[in-house]
Amino acid sequence: MGKETKLGINDYWFVALVFLAALLGPIPFLGLIVYGTLVEDSKVIKGGSKSALILYAGVHILQYLLNVVEYLVRCFDMSEYGLNTFYRFMDRIDYFIDGVFYGAILVFIVINVIKGLSAGASVNVGASRPVSSAVNPMLAAGIEKAEKEAAASEPAAAAPAQEEAPRKTPEVCPNCGKKLAEGVKFCAGCGTKIG
């Protein structure tokens, strides 16, 4: 489940920013990784930063190795046009590696944004304070007051008809909020008398 960072965004969104920074260059990329590692205390951020760093470093190391091979071949190429097909092949490999890198970065960004959106909804739900037992008496008093006001505003002729009709059990307990079975007289969660 995602939590909010000190920047005020969800930690999955922060990881998506780290992957986006990998496309922008090494300075914003490494800056966000250093910030996330030193300032933020989140396993999601640290794990995402580690994945982004491994992907970024792996692609660049592979590209540098291919460049070394290409330069070594150029050193031994005595003719002007002798190895053109080799150079074109190396260029295609380089483009392929770039495409895989950019595609992987975009996939990771989308995954983390989706996780951030779903975790953001659950963070908001979790952030709203559940009704505790200290608040429940005030809630119960408010419900009781509203019921009395509604009963007082009804005409006197409707009162006998209401007494004759069987009272329906509420869906949830007004004290603890636990779901109630039909026809119960006491809440199974807190023991409050129902009806």
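^ that was protein a. below is b, sequence first then the tokens
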Amino acid sequence: MSDPRILITTYPDAFLYRGGGELEIMELANNLRLLGFRVELYGPNSQPLSFYDTVLHFSIVQSGMELFRKLKSAKRTVLVPNVWWIERPSDHDRANAEEFFRLADQIVFKSTAELENVRQYVAFPEAKAIICPWGVDRCYAEPVDRELFKKQHDLDQYILWLGIIEERKNQLTAIHALRDSKIPLVFVGDYRDRRYYEACRRSAPAHFKFIPHIQPKSEMLRSALQNCDVYLEASLEPAGMSAMEAYIAGRPLVISEGAWTTEHFGDEVTVIDPRSEASISSAVMDVLAGTSKRPRTGRVNLRNLLPESLEPLGRVLAGAPVMRR
């Protein structure tokens, strides 16, 4: 297939709040274009469905089901579930996932850990499943003004956490764990659940900071990442691309233990039990004190850098043979 034409779709209300998944969709579109694909996001400016060779649908949120059914009836569909269950899903959620998987022509998982997390709860045809690693932009390793972010927000030392503020991300536990720290914890991200966000604000000491948004890949965000003393994510689900950005920025990471973390970082990061305030506190303090040394062997490489990391996904979208697990 020459000049493959791809339409990217997702559930209808996805872009009401910008979290990691929404940023991934935008990065996905931009970087597939760099690999030679003609890519558009579904919306009023996209072409009629007949124009496209393949539809890439992101997420198995139920509100996207009717759209996905209509897409499937007309086009080859590649599904990126983008799901991580932190506890056993309800029968309703399992049935919804199974229907998405039944309809999809191929199912793309971003890691072995994600595939195994889903497979323990929901069956799907093994022949449909393909692992295609995601990646991050190498710009996060390119030096910027060290003082840019610090001056903007009146900071010296600081602990950084990027991402949407919500209960499954577990910011409130980290706030409780670090409330006695003299070094501020700085959150950069929007929120969906105002109740949870306000609980975080109420619990945080005055020197902790909440910054609603910084443009991805901007000098300001790169300065924030490259100059933090610790990058922290005590999420109940995998940290994801933000942790990789912090890694290639050269910062020490404290992130939740689990299969995803081991798969991507091995023993190069400090891992924590995200449900334990003591675990979070002691790990962060050890890193700040310089007593937690981790090897840096460069596990995050071209396999995890854009656009090269998307070449396996590109082969899937183009209908070319791919190497299976």
